[in-house]
Amino acid sequence: MIDKICEKLTKRIQKEMPDVDEERAEVINYGLQIIFGEIPKIFIMLAIAYILGVFKLSLIAFAVLIPYRGASGGFHLHSHLGCIIATCAMYCGTAILSKYLALGQIAKYVVIGCELIFGLIMIKLYAPADTEDVPILQKEVRKKKQLMSYISFTVALIIALFIHNNEISNILIIGNLIQTISITKIAYKLTKNKYGYEVYNTSPEVV
Hints:
207 residues, 76% helix
């Protein structure tokens, strides 16, 4: 159903904008599928979060991870059901873990320090982690997204370090770690994804 709606909208855009070629139309179509696919996933995730009693924490997790997720990218599952399950696992799972994780002050410093080092290395190697369907091949766009990844990731962990609310601190620590893992080579291999530059035989740094 979503595929048909997006296809019709794409054709309408092509009709209104003759300069949109088939390659650009494919990108537009995929973008529309992501938009229409994300909306029901968010509502389903929040509904499940409400049933599990972590609605507020899941909503916070979703909100605070948007900047880093949007900048750094990450793998995508190849079915709507898989995406729904992954979305619920990420945000609801982060919320649930944040309720029960108890880190002492020293342990918190150590965890954040290790995560910061790991994250910065992974961002350098893989961010922005695109996909073969929506590749990011322009050098300036990649540089901008990588810079935003560094900033959003680092700021989140600094906030986690000093904020007094234990649950929100845990959300920032756990959520950013999961998101960082989602851009790695191992995560892409396990989910049978490919980076855009791998498919189009370009350097991950330049076009």
